[in-house]
Amino acid sequence: MTRPSGAYLPNWLDAVLRATQQPVSAGPDAVEAGRQKLHAELAASEQREAEIEKQDWDSIPLLRDVIEAHQQRMGKLAANSQAGEIVAHDRDAIARLEKRIQELAEQQSQKPLEPTSPAPATQAAPHN
């Protein structure tokens, strides 16, 4: 709707006309803003966790610590209905880490036992 040229409109009507011509740009509601925040936190967390897993990938005790951190976060988020994506990520991570721990345990059980001290070297008698 446009104002007829040269026509006088009261201020309130002019404001109404301008308002109807401008797009409505409402921001996200509180729920959507919370969901977006949780999603951003998840993305940042996934990045940090990938770095930690890479560093700890060959250590059973360190991987168990990472699993415990995932379990603690799941416990904290259990009542949050908006945290389903994070909880699902934690479950997947725990399953992946438990599989890796199992692989490491199998590798360690297949290694031959190494002696704790080197065997004494024998010297041959010199030839005269």
Helix content: 55-70%
Order of helices and strands: HHHH
Low-confidence stretches: none
SS-derived structural category: mainly alpha
What's the pLDDT, averaged over the residues? 80
What percent of residues are in strands? under 5%
Distance between the termini: 118 Å
Number of helices: 4
What is the C-alpha radius of gyration, as a whole number of Å? 33 Å
DSSP strand tally: 0
Biggest sheet layout = none
Q: What is the 3D shape?
A: rod-shaped
Features of this protein?
rod-shaped; mainly alpha; 128 residues
Please give the structural blueprint:
Elements: H1 11-21, H2 30-56, H3 60-77, H4 84-110
Helix pairs in contact: 2-3, 3-4
Would you kindly provide a written description of the structure presented here, covering whatever features stand out?
This protein has 128 residues and is mainly α. Helix content is 65%, strand content 0%. It has 4 helices and no strands. It has helices spanning 11-21, 30-56, 60-77, 84-110. α2 runs antiparallel to α3 (60-77) and α3 runs antiparallel to α4 (84-110). The relative contact order is 0.08. The model has no long low-confidence stretch (mean pLDDT 80).
Short description:
The protein has 128 residues and is mainly α.
